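Help needed: design a sequence for this.
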């Protein structure tokens, strides 16, 4: 098994971990209902994609529960 030749110092680990960050979500408005959704995905609000209804939304998520 390969073993690291040198200890990784705390400074080096910290330098690497300082680059580990989240990227903000890229949201685009749905052309049908203008709600913010992820691009290249069927809209979860109206079920439209590329100008056509591809899935049927059973009920409104907000309100009940
Ligand atoms: Zn929509």
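Sure. Designed sequence:
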């Amino acid at each position: 098994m390969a073993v690291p030749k040198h200890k990784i110092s705390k400074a080096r680990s910290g330098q690497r971990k300082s680059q580990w960050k989240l990227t903000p979500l890229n949201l685009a408005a749905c052309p049908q209902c203008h709600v913010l959704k992820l691009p290249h995905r069927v809209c979860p609000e109206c079920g439209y994609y590329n100008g056509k209804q591809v899935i049927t939304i059973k009920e409104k998520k907000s309100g009940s529960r």
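The helical segments are 10-17.
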